[in-house]
Amino acid sequence: MPGYATRHERVPVGGHVYRLRVLSDKQQFSDHDGHSSRLGISSAQWSLFGQIWPSGRLLAQAMHRFDIDGKRILELGCGIGLASLVLQRRGADVVASDMHPLSEPFLAYNSALNELPSVHYRQLRWDVPLPTLGHFELIIASDVLYEPAHSQLLASVIERHAAPNAEILVTDPGRGHSARFSRLLEAQGFELTETRCPMDDQDAPPYRGNLLYYSRNGARVVV
Fold it and tell me: What stretches pass through the bilayer (predicted)?
């Protein structure tokens, strides 16, 4: 027995329905070997990776339309990895990353469930450099600024892994930490553009979602 319960969910993105295995609820915790605890994942945070959140849907919708030609793409804090699955279907050069020990098997399962090749995955702690990860022209994330310390941690990851001509796309539900994050990226030479975006296939203008789009050295907005 895995020690946790799952269910299947169907999420439409760009006219295609993605089938996803997710945790059945947010009240679960399974860390028999203490791996999650050693990574700093508390019992309250443990189940968060295994849900489809509104910001994750928003990022997936954006990735259905985003210009990906010639770009190496990194998803930070991928969780279930819906946005990476959308990019994989489009033939993108995408790497999904998270530090949760179950993100990789869930992503592999969901890739197979949608008849896609497994998305390339790297376990990534934001506070531990990983030089072999390399550099990316596009870095994406959804709802990753939910604690004060995350602004600095995320900015440091971007500093290590963003290419000179880079774009950063973050969906944020307005938790209050994006202003500091934007200042940190401005110090790295990024310019911010906020863009409204549909939350799902039925969302009509004016759209409900908000994207934080950062570009450096002439990268252009295509959202």
Answer: none
